[in-house]
Predict the 3D structure of the following.
Amino acid sequence: MYKELFSIKIRTSKEGKHISGNERIVPKNKINETVFKLLERQKNKDFDFSNIKIEKLKVNPEIVEKTLKIETLFFSNYNEAKKYAIKLLNQIVNLPENQLESIIGLLYEGAAPDGSNMRGAMLVNTDGKRVEIDKFKGVRTVLVDYVDREKIEKKLLDNGFTTRTADALALTTKNMLHPKIIAEFCISDDPDYTTGYISTKDKYIRLSPLKLEGLNKGGRVYFIQSDADLTDIYNFLQKTPVLIKDIDL
Ligand code: AMP
């Protein structure tokens, strides 16, 4: 049923600066319409470079029945939300709250060595060490999509969410499938989007707001067990395709 699947990746930038990236996994007969839809999504963006890569999957995807369960919590300001996130992470990751605060604080300042946003996620282990191989690039979760994205996006829109949730939910659901990744923290680098999230093994908890309006910094931290095999984590996130059937509202 899932043979001949293709990954379609689109990446757009201006003056060398990343603007947006998107990925789909579809059967061969859906490639054209999917490329068109991806182009439609970025047509109003101000860019000078866009690259589309179409590649046949080398291995069969892992099929997942459902995403993490979506929960949304509202706070009076972003500091309250951040405090909540740190308390929750403290229970899961077992690191002291002040250490978690400085790790997460990096995302609010730009976690790359030059103070810019990283392209991918930071990896922090349960000893509190930052272990991603490249501190500019971080690790990027790729090769994840929904079996029927149209159906999922409609379901999310009908329930008051956006396509942004579809993307983040798919990505973090894949992350949490790895046995050694135990939690994730994320704030967008989009200055107009202040809702962030924390994921645990079973929940995708949206926290609103998790950053100040207007801040163009953001990023992700994947918390991993300190005995994790890094090569295995990189391989899973970058090379194992995952297709998700449904969302858990
Ligand atoms: P976004 O949710 O797209 O605003 O992304 C927020 C931040 O998450 C970015 O600045 C990157 O640091 C990181 N990020 C974006 N895409 C990925 C990905 N596919 N895998 C890991 N980290 C990512």
